[in-house]
Backbone:
């Protein structure tokens, strides 16, 4: 009884931490009944050490709740069992432990030593009435069954399974074991018509800026945690990203100012994957891990087919995010990783951007000398990684007290440093004679500051407008083509899914082999949108006018649709069809990954 009450209190706290909005009371009752039922079975059993077993159960459940709540606080969703495989990544990429494991979350386990002590001191089994002890599992089991049946009849089971501790994890584990999420080859969601359409999306169409980069090198800079809001932001009389601002105001630059992240389970590595392939990322495991051996026909391959040599650069451990294993099939012929760089100073996650870029330029000279043909360099930065805390000598911005020593102020300092390093990189390219003949594309991999955490309020204050998912996922895309007179801000809404066709248009190469899901943002005139699956769940979208967040409990009517300008709620029926269409598109992309579709078609 004692443990059941404590667990019930934890379930109340837990549903609060994971922001359960609907059916909260039934969810707490079910979690609590299941726990009490299991505890009653333990106490009724004839085994020895009942207290120890009950206590072990209590500790295990407390730790699962803790892990779920911590995961939720970062990813805004409950973890699936396959996350265990990514433990190393999670541990390394999580926000500072201090931030994730705040006091409210730690409350979930802090009582354990005290509970253990009390349990040791008193003999609880003896206190329970024998008759009640014998019958309690049957009584509890029946009440539980009756509640589950009535919830099912009322149609709330989906909602419960999406948020209730036991039913959520059990459903997830059985689905994973039975492969229930997998699309069967028989009911392929890809019709002949779809194939034709997706292939035609990939083809080069003559339009604005088509081929202005043809024959030039391509350097893609994927910048860690670069959001769009610091661009051209004047904060306290200071420019946060003076070098990027300068680049944007240059005559030879296209700035896509309505561009967004599109991640799956692989964070930074998904930003890479989606950008280079224009396929949706996997939601089961990082795509680089799950589909390491698949055949792809992304940007590195397209450029290689046109004579380019494609290399990737990143100053961290080569095995992280499974990059080393995944890159060859992505089309990268060489991966310059942490071990290829020399550095004495470590900044946050590892190598300083300045050291990384300086030495990257030396490797670029080598790459440039391979043959007469141009090259593709895919360069992934690192320094502006969460939690953004840098040594004092790097914090050069004057930050107001209210943003000091919190994520917002630290991020501004950190991204200011990243911008400085980008400026030096571009100067370095100029000195190395690599600038004139090179197209430089720059974008952020993902958000820095979550809209679902406490910092959102500070962000709203800083920006003077509501900081919601649309602003959180908003990243810049900048394409600089030295010598071209193209200066323009392109505001067609898009995401990393659109990078490949957008850059392929600028580079002027025709993709005759692959299929893509994105659009060329420079020329596309149809209905453009962003179809995220993380932070907002599958079926959500952001378009020019609407932010649609599909409900977390699986009941469409509980979703949220707002007008992006007025921030007022709009009728859900207006978005239903669009949301369904997006889910279908994602299924098609998943089918391509699951069946290794390009294995046969790309030769
Ligand atoms: C690690 C770096 C950071 O190699 O790319 O990954 P993230 O934590 O941002 O996913
Ligand atoms: Mn990242």
Residues:
């Amino acid at each position: 009884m004692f443990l059941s009450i404590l667990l019930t209190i934890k379930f109340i706290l837990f549903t609060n931490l994971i922001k359960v909005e609907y059916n909260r009371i039934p969810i707490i009752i079910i979690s609590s009944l299941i726990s009490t039922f299991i505890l009653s079975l333990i106490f009724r059993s004839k085994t020895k050490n009942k207290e120890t077993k009950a206590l072990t159960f209590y500790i295990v459940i407390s730790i699962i709740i803790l892990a779920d709540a911590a995961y939720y606080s970062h990813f805004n969703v409950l973890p699936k069992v396959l996350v265990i495989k990514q433990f190393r990544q999670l541990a390394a990429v999580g926000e500072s432990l201090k931030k994730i494991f705040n006091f409210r979350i730690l409350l979930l386990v802090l009582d354990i030593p005290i509970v253990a002590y009390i349990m040791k001191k008193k003999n609880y089994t003896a206190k329970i009435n024998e008759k009640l002890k014998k019958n309690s599992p049957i009584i509890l089991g029946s009440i539980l069954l009756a509640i589950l049946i009535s919830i099912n009849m009322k149609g709330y089971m989906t909602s419960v399974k999406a948020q209730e501790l036991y039913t959520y994890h059990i459903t997830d584990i059985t689905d994973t074991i039975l492969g229930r999420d997998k699309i069967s080859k028989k009911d392929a969601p890809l019709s002949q018509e779809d194939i034709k359409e997706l292939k035609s999306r990939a083809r080069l169409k003559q339009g604005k800026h088509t081929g202005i980069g043809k024959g030039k090198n391509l350097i893609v800079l994927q910048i860690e945690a670069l959001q769009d809001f610091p661009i051209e932001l004047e904060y306290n009389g200071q420019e946060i990203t003076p070098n990027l601002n300068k680049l944007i105001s240059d005559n030879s630059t296209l700035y896509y100012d309505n561009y967004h992240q599109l991640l799956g389970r692989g964070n930074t590595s998904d930003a890479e994957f989606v950008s280079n392939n224009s396929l949706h990322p996997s939601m089961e495991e990082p795509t680089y891990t799950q589909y390491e051996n698949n055949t792809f026909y992304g940007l590195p391959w397209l450029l290689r087919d046109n004579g380019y040599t494609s290399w990737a650069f990143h100053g961290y451990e080569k095995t992280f995010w499974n990059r080393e294993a995944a890159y060859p099939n992505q089309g990268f012929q060489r991966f310059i990783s942490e071990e290829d760089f020399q550095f004495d100073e470590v900044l946050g996650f590892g190598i300083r951007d300045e050291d990384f870029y300086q030495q990257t330029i030396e490797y670029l000279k080598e790459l440039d000398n391979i043959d007469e043909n141009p090259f593709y360099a895919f360069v992934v930065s690192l320094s502006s990684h969460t939690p953004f805390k840098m040594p004092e000598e790097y914090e050069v911005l004057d930050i107001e007290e209210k943003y000091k020593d919190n994520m917002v102020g630290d991020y501004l300092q950190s991204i200011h440093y990243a911008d400085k390093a980008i400026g030096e990189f571009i100067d370095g390219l100029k000195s190395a004679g690599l600038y004139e003949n090179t197209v430089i594309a720059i974008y952020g991999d993902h958000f820095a500051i979550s809209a679902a955490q406490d910092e959102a309020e500070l962000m709203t204050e800083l920006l003077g407008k509501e900081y919601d998912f649309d602003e959180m996922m908003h990243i810049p895309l900048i394409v600089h083509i030295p010598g071209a007179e193209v200066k323009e801000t392109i505001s067609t809404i898009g995401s990393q899914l659109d990078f490949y066709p957008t850059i392929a248009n600028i580079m002027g190469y025709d993709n005759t082999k692959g299929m893509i899901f994105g659009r060329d943002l420079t020329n596309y005139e149809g209905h453009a949108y962003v179809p995220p699956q993380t932070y907002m769940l599958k079926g959500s979208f952001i378009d020019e006018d609407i932010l649609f967040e599909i409900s977390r409990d699986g009941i469409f009517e509980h979703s949220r649709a707002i007008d992006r300008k007025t921030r007022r709620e709009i009728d859900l029926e207006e978005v239903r069809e669009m949301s369904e269409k997006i889910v279908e598109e994602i299924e098609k992309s998943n089918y391509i990954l699951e069946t290794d579709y390009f294995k046969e078609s790309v030769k």
Notes: The mean pLDDT is 93. The pocket of (2R)-2,3-dihydroxypropyl phosphate (ligand 1) is lined by residues 93, 224, 267-268, 316, 320-321, 382, 385 (CB under 6 Å). The first helix runs from residue 2 to 17. The CA atoms of residues 214 and 300 lie 15 Å apart.
